[in-house]
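@channel sequence for tomorrow's demo:
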Amino acid sequence: MEQNLNYKYERLKEIISDLGHVMIAYSGGVDSTLLLKVAKDVLGDFVVAVTSSSETYPSRELEDSENYAKQIGVKHILIHTSELEIAGFADNPPDRCYFCKNELFTKLKEIADELSIKYILDGANYDDKNDHRPGMRAAREFGIVSPLKEAGFTKEDIRELSKQLDLPTWDKPSFACLSSRFPYGTKITQEKLKTIDEAEDFIRNLGFRELRVRHHETIARIEIPKSEFEYFLNHSDTISKRLKELGFLYITLDLEGFRTGSMNMTLRDEELCKDIE
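structure tokens (generated this afternoon):
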């Protein structure tokens, strides 16, 4: 395991070194933070990080991305995207993420052209090939480079190397844009996004690190690790009260526990596969 990880690490540095001057789509998450760190180590000042803020981006993540980019001395550009203004996005189709990534990469390409940067990088990893990721289609169309995936890094590899490099994100819970909290076909609104953001922040401040609050109109379906069920029940009255204040009528705990992509269970196999071939 250690030898294999070292090989992937060296391969990652080679891939980045060959690019020379790069722009990184930087979310502040586990994957893009490792990519930014290695790119900075390899290319020095020839790295620009770009983070997009929007109504679908958890507010707490923006501060994390700003702080780390500043800490390691990377030029950091903040832009704003408004996914709800994209035709079709708010209807929440199964390929919703394609619309989002298409707008993001369009804006990144404009900035890269202005700065004479040829390569735009993202934090996609090898495990993403096995998930429903419509955004990967947009990445292919824009010629986005995914060094972590190319070097064979799995999510486990990324966390292990991040730990070895003493990155603050090595054990950071995975996050996804707030739009992923809604069943496909459910209309997404700014008010609903704000409700989810506030609900998750409230529960997180009670000591939960991994969680999702899924929005089923009047029902809030909460996903947390099964190991934390007892702790959750000790705070159930407090959580129920706050989420009802936010507009939910019924507060439920998902007995299957926390898992990413649970909304994808409603998709047919062909929909899951068409964007990862």
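heads up for whoever presents: The chain has a mean pLDDT of 91.
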